[in-house]
Design goal:
Elements (H helix, E strand, L loop, with lengths): L5 H23 L6 H25 L7 H23 L6 H23 L2
Helix pairs in contact: 1-2, 1-4, 2-3, 2-4, 3-4
């Protein structure tokens, strides 16, 4: 994998923070126990782990996450990666939305790669 600049690393972490914020806001308005709520909680947990794994890798910190949670996060983020290109196709080249989605795709790809490395 190519070496990333500090700015690219920060953009990747910010992509995850954005997903986390949006998920938390959406959860606040959902019914507890509904199927959509459980799915969003699962995605939120995966996003938090994704951000943690990036931070741990780039900052040389220990990652305190169970192997089971790492596997689940990898599966969830990998699944989301499959859906993101369809959103990208609907955006105009050079638009802010396209840049945002491209950064999210890159962040998810890197996180999945690092999750692979972290799984024992």
């Amino acid at each position: 994998m190519e070496k990333m600049t500090v700015a690219e690393q920060q953009q990747s972490i910010e992509a995850f923070r954005s997903v986390i914020r949006k998920s938390e806001n959406a959860l606040a308005s959902m019914k507890t126990g509904a199927p959509q709520t459980k799915l969003l909680e699962k995605r939120l947990k995966a996003a938090r782990i994704g951000a943690d794994v990036l931070d741990a890798h780039w900052e040389g910190k220990d990652l305190d996450v169970s192997n089971e949670d790492l596997l689940e996060a990898k599966e969830v983020l990998g699944g989301l990666l499959l859906t993101l290109p369809s959103f990208l196709e609907k955006t105009k080249p050079g638009s802010g939305q396209r840049t945002y989605i491209e950064r999210r795709i890159k962040a998810f790809q890197i996180a999945v790669l690092f999750l692979d490395d972290s799984i024992k």
